[in-house]
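Encode chain A's predicted structure.
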Amino acid sequence: MSAGATVPYLAFADDTIIFTRCSEPSLTALHEFLLLYQKQSGQKVNTGKSTLLTPARMSEEHIRLVETTLGFHRQSFPVKYLGVPLVRGRMGTTVFDPLLAKLRARLFHWSSKLLSTGGKIVLIRHVLGSIPLYLLQAIYPPKTVVVALGRICNSFLWDSSVDSKRLHWAAWEKLCFPVQEGGLGFHSFFDSAKAFACKSWWQLRKNDSIWAGYMHSKYIKNSHPSIAVVDHPPASWRRLLAVRDFAERRIRWCLGKGLVDFWHDTWCGDLPLALVVGVANPPHALVAEFFTAHGWNVPRLKEWVPDFVVQRITNIRFFPEQDDAMVWVPSHNGDFSVASAWEDIRQRRHTSWIDRYVWGPIVPLRVSFFAWRLVRHWLPLDSVLQSKGVALCSRCSCCRQAQETVSHLFLNGTVARTVWDHFLKMFGLLPFNAASMSAMLSHWFFSHSKVSTTHVRVLVPLLVLWFIWKSRNSARFEAASATPAQVIFRIEEFLDQMGTSHAFSRTSFAGDRDCPWARFGGHFRRDKNVAPVAWKKPPSGWLKLNTDASVLHGRASGRGVPRDHCGKVCFAYYKEFGELDVLEAEAQSLLHGLQLCADREVGALTVESDSKALVQLVCSDMGSK
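Encoded structure for chain A:
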């Protein structure tokens, strides 16, 4: 491979890369070894899947020698090993086409479903944004690819489907901030790639792996990693070089045996001594050369560094019986973590208290996203579209009199003013003529010293804005009427539903025990014992029917699916039953499923339901009644 770096093979599970000379003795020895391995292990090398990778200038004679000796066929670069593309030369954008295609496939699958904006945010945070991370740990893609990754995620957020494009109100990089800093909690792919590069630099500096040893032998050689110069550096070294200065400034050394570079490692203060003293090309020396069994060798130190540095050094303790320890400063325990590196790399904005409350845990995600857009005037209101050059006539769909603007629709219009006055009076707040959306939200969020992110005074103003927007859309697109009474009723109904689902706690009504929904504050979230639940197969030749039902806004619906003993779905059904309670809906869903099974002449059948009350009723003598 190179002087001092011998890497005979790379192996992970059943994926193995073997490096060998292209000579007949070497190839014959390798072939005999593989035959011996097959004989001893009982496993067989699949020559059909095994390939030969060659240098660019390898002759056809040598290629035929390998093919005839080992039976492997030649494969050209790029190839994929452990999910990472291996290329020869410069890494082009086409290498990453499978990754982009995988993201687009997920996007196409999800876009076919009726996802709320809250659901999209969750999927981007935890699924779509995580798919490229494995690849970013190993290589740094071209900038074009990283930009394309962001565009795919941004399109999924703003567009209604793959074929239906909408206005993208913000670029991807502007969304990659924590929610309290005005973002959506996404991670920039650029920042993630740099954080993973810092991890590689940390592993290089620890020098306790095959990869680190290879990099030291091939590129660093007898130099120090922080000043090593590589002529015509490959992509792997350029990736490390991009974060070298950043990572080195965050690495410190705790002295043990003293096998630390005296000049270039940061072990005395926050800078290497070469920078403190101002030495351009200092001779190589280890810290261990400057202390003895009795302590620091002060006379020798004074020969090398000024007195103020000597005084600083003599105050440092060392432990010769222990190994030197490398410390990552941003981490709380000194060990490197990608999270701490990302937190130190990412761009920052000023923290916004408005955004912190808007994204409170008590607020539904879709409402938080709506309010986040509203504060920034990123809603398709008439005045906003006109400011973007769209020529249209404007009239408020609620009062049908004034022009539709943010302040009129949500703050000062007839409907908005009546709704705000109703809830301000309910919570004992004085009428407030807000000049902006942030001013109105601040009036609520900071109206009481006990208001927290889970307080009802955070939720109520956001629900007022949300249901005004819903009523406006119904009036504009469905020709429905938008009255203050309707908006107030929908808000109070939503609060009742949250109360019955135990979404509130005692802190939600701190200082507001006279609030109409304070009766829900006495309910604490019950500790739920987490237990694994698995679908159990029916006996061979049997089918199992699983049924369920739900009641939403007084309307009941049921669904079910029968499967055979292999788990294969036979058919599925969904049916709406009208106004029923939960138990009746569960029973109707079960009855409908049994009727469908009877119509299809299903033989042996077992039934499973998640309604304990229904199971007890069916198994009791009351079932026939």
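The CA atoms of residues 302 and 308 lie 10 Å apart.
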